[in-house]
Amino acid sequence: MPEYYNITIEDTGESYRCVDYRSVLVGMEALGKKGIPVGCRSGGCGVCKVQVVEGTYSKRVMSRAHVSEEEEASGCALSCRITPTSDMRIRVLGKMKKNVCRPASMTGTPPIFTN
Amino acid sequence: MAMTGILRPGHAQIRVLDLEESVKWYTDVLGLVPMGRDSQGRAYFKARQERDHNSIILRQADRAGMDFFGYKVLDQAALDGLEKKIRDYGIQTERIPAGDLMETGERVRFKVPTGHTTELYVDKKPAGNAVGTENPNVDVIDGPGIGPVRLDHCLIYGKDIDGNHDFYTKVLGFHLVERVKMEDGTTDLAIWLSCSAKAHDIAMVRHSEDDKLHHVAFQVTSWEQVLRSADILSNNRASIDVGPTRHGITNGTTVYFFDPSGNRLETFSGGYDHYPDMEPTTWTWDEVGAGIFYHPRKLNEAFLTVVT
Q: How many domains does chain A have?
């Protein structure tokens, strides 16, 4: 039988029930909840990065471009790569690289997708 | 114009976080043909109708993304000529010896202005497609997995796409097919380039970081095969990004999804033919939503900004 755990996103107060075979991120999406940015869902892009404040979880390999060993050891993770083994409280660290869409003449530099 | 220089995209080396998981997924879900491994542990694949030995190389790494993208060139004289033109343009080249990639000849490697490592080569050992070249059967695609026809194109992200545009058109002989203008009406946000009669062989988007991958695309033969791709992806609980839908740009039908390491891939069908005498198509900033995804006609932030 699957186990269910309660996930709370501290930033928004949103909480949802996550089944133990789903990642914290996909568990949120599956119930139409929001709060963590959704990207590749596969540990590569980094936008769903969270800090685990409370609770236990199992994890899979995630990109070192987005989570260093030190961060991982201190409870930081990509939420698409962790599955709950208890109720959890998390804080959102990741964000979309905002599409600022400014013309080059206004910014002095052409890049428009800035962090 | 006959094709006398660069013929087509030939190979892409993709970084994966878990090689064994990825080999299984690229074989069973994407449906590429496994072609072996080399002494560095890299895993090689081809699409079922490709004749050359490999087109996708997977390398285990601690982060996702693309190591390099390579184009096949007609013959040695064309390769030597292109190498000279690249050096004369002011870009350094190096030669990677034959055999560094399995069943692949010497490669000329260089970095384009957006920092992407790019290669040209002539030889890759013929390995045969699914049906052969004498009195062939039609290839009835029955799995495993999606089983795309071929590696089709890639979309890269970086700062100096104007520099890439100049280099790709003046030195490598590509043509501008479509472009998206930014809000100022002048600056290119994105460009689509072809070295063939395809609607695109590579595309690039202006972005604050260099050497980023947006997606690698594979051709399938019809809109129904795009829908079938999405069904197979969902059956296997793969991470689908957008689609199935249609692009305004190129008119191609599409589904975007992620490999097990978060690299975005696409199966793509259709797209018009492009010839070098054709005037490029331009999309203005206000209508670019429909250029990217024709039915919703609006920008999709995750699609535009999530890269590896």
A: 1
